Amino acid sequence: MTKPVAWRVSDHPVAYPEAVTEMERRVAAIADGRAKEMVWLLEHPPLYTAGTSAKASDLLDAARLPVFETGRGGQFTYHGPGQRVGYVMMDLRQRNNDVRRFVHDLEEWLIRTLARFNVRGERREGRVGIWVASSSTKEDKIAALGIRVRRGVSYHGVSFNVDPELDHFTGIVPCGIHEHGVTSLAKLGIQVMMPEVDMALRGAFEEVFGITTVLDRPRAKPKVGA
Predict the structure, then answer these.
(1) Bridge-partner residues for 12, per DSSP?
(2) 127 near 177, Cβ under 8 Å?
(3) Mind listing the pLDDT tens digit for each residue in 14-33?
(4) Residue of 41, 175, 185, 204 marked active site
(5) Cβ-contact 27, 184 below 8 angstroms
(6) What is the rounded distance in angstroms from the CA atom of residue 119 to the CA atom of residue 192?
């Protein structure tokens, strides 16, 4: 039986390079048996990331936002305020080393989270991510995912559009898909605060992966002379 997964939430935007450094440090500790598995919920400042399958031609407006190359799978995506990113550092050696099943479970996590807001999220063959119907003939992506595995431990993870600036997605071809758009809870008419989304994410995660335990928030450093 696996141990409870540590659950961490950052209240302020985290710079992308800082997040990657922190993830890699945690992945090494998990692989060595020195730390628990962890899910880290956060937001980033506005930026684009390029996965290992990204095509240069899919970066339509390179001057708009900073671009970071990343080791996760997938192509270009946007991160920014109003989008909840979930970095998932899980020991797949304790989960049958089944990457395909792990990706399926990440999708299930997102689908069950959406269901808590009465939104039907669905998988689509040949298209990574979670999709919702925007009309009888069109679908939009509301959540994306891309992972990397190092020493049997996953990192990177998922992104869930709550109320981001959707116009920034026009600077790229999101995930290399031209035929479909991008949406959010807000665009669907669902106004929620991020803490409510975090509660839904945690509840759905525990249904799929098992119980979690909240990490203590780091204490603020005392001011000099205080």
Answers:
(1) none
(2) yes
(3) 999 999 999 999 999 999 99
(4) 175
(5) no
(6) 13
